[in-house]
Amino acid sequence: MQLYNVFAFPIVRDQLIANTVLVAVATLFVILRGISRKIRQSAIGWDDACCLGGLLHTYGMLAMHYHYARVGMRQHVTAIPPENTVLIAKMLIIYQIVYYNAMVLAKFSYLFFYLRIFVSKEFRVLTWICMGCAGAYWTGSVLQVFLICTPFERNWNPLLPGHCASQNVAFSTIGAFNLVTDVMIMALPIRFIWKLQMSVGTKMALYGIFGLGIFISSITIIRIRVLTTVDFNDLPYSMIWAAFWSVTEPALAIANACAPMLRPILKAAFPKLFASKAKYSTQPASGPIASKSNSSKRMYGIDEEDSEYPLTRLGQEPGLADTRSLNEQSQDGRSQHAPH
């Protein structure tokens, strides 16, 4: 087997550097997520575990991207030893599984985050349905890795008698399901956020945070398009962009899954920016209107004990936004109602 300089081709060098930076950014976001949890003194949840698991799989993707360059990526198949070609084909099998793991863990991180903060029964049911769809995406993706060629060894030895289905079609189909699940996850909170007792500005900020997934979806679309151009008869040469986007996508997905959790960090770093401008009464709201509002808040709202987001205080005058966290509001409410 022959090894090559990973930076021999400028295009490969630039891709490796870009992906290294993106994975470093994803790592930073996960670290900040943990610090945010510490600031809020919140328990580590399944959303955090999935995010960390997705990051570890993304490290694996990046390591394999470097090793692809080491064994001849961007070289034509006729220019490298046969054992290099076999290794690249075998690595592709592992590469796919690690990629699917990274992506589904990023999806689960977002969905477990939804379950952590939203209390609406309807929303939670829809979230579990999305989890089922994400799980089905992962199951189908992994199964195609093992079923696309009969016998399995034909993945790296095309001279064996047997049959392989079109990998371009398989990759594109799986990519389409990946995109559909992303859109489902992004669209899920839209209607429910609008029903929350929040200022319009806060709602728009939430839409912006959750809408970051649109950018990830654009990466998914690019990756689907690139996968259709891979020539499996000259895999080392034609795979460079597929390998690049397959690291970029999970790295950005992990960072995106952490973005909604970073408000405590930003609040600590920029206290004036997040300082409350609202004035509150020292008396708790009462009466049938307040009771109805509180009921609506629980039906459509965010769990006050674990949310990263502010709500508009239901008893305040219209237009006054409460920038305190839900947890703080909840504690105030308990202290106001405590017996003296």
Structure characteristics:
disordered C terminus; SAT4-like; membrane; transmembrane; single chain; 340 residues; two-stranded antiparallel ribbon; mainly alpha; Rhodopsin domain-containing protein
Written description of the protein model:
The chain is mainly alpha-helical. The radius of gyration is 24 Å and the shape is globular. The protein has helices at 10-40, 46-70, 82-117, 121-147, 167-187, 190-195, 200-210, 213-227, 235-238, 240-258, 263-269, 287-300, 326-337, and strands at residues 149-150, 163-164.
How would the blueprint of this fold be written?
Layout: H1 10-40, H2 46-70, H3 82-117, H4 121-147, E1 149-150, E2 163-164, H5 167-187, H6 190-195, H7 200-210, H8 213-227, H9 235-238, H10 240-258, H11 263-269, H12 287-300, H13 326-337
Helix pairs in contact: 1-2, 1-10, 2-3, 2-10, 3-4, 3-5, 3-10, 4-5, 5-8, 8-10
Main location: membrane
Biased composition (Polar residues): 282-297, 324-333
Subcellular location: Membrane
Mean pLDDT: 82
What is the total tally of β strands?
Answer: 2
What spatial form do the alpha-carbon principal axes imply?
globular
- Count, helices: 13
Helical fraction: 55-70%
Q: Percent of residues in beta strands?
A: under 5%
Q: Largest beta sheet: what is the strand line-up?
A: 1-2
Sheet with the most strands, sense and barrel status: 2 strands, antiparallel
Uncertain spans = 277-300, 303-340
Q: Give the H and E element order.
A: HHHHEEHHHHHHHHH
Terminal CA distance reads 80 Å
Task: Specify Rg, calculated over alpha carbons.
Answer: 24 Å
Structural class: mainly alpha
